[in-house]
Design a protein that fits this description.
Length: 162
Amino acid sequence: MNDVHIHLVVTHLPIVGVLIGFLVLLTGYIKKSPQVKTTALGIFIFSALAAIAAFYTGEAAEDIAENLPGVSETLIHTHEEQAELFYTMMLILGGASLVTLLIHHKKYTFVKYGFIVVLLLSLSSIIISKYVGTSGGEITHVEIRNDSNVIQLDSHYDSEDD
């Protein structure tokens, strides 16, 4: 297993985790279950920790990926920009989840506002996760790139055949 493998394994955790956490939190609201809602907080905290691991494995993965044929520095840079935003959002979501968990444990009445903030942050994080996941996938998956990137890649390979 090299650095790219490690990065790919851990990057899926926060992306999937934030979606699962959102669905669990929504279920907690629908069922009016504080236990289900606090479970969602735990999922968000775990996802934030996984985002830290994903973020810090990115540089080593880049060092390998940038030397692969057909990999564009532009695609890597776009992914880095998206990853920085997602990382920041996940840290905020994880922090808000931790604070909400603590105020829930202390039984403060304003905890409902913490859950609302976490719900909104998780929804924002899901939207950002779509872009970071797609931009990461586009680095090596030609089939999901837009047509202009595929054409550039095809013309690169055509010129090598000459």
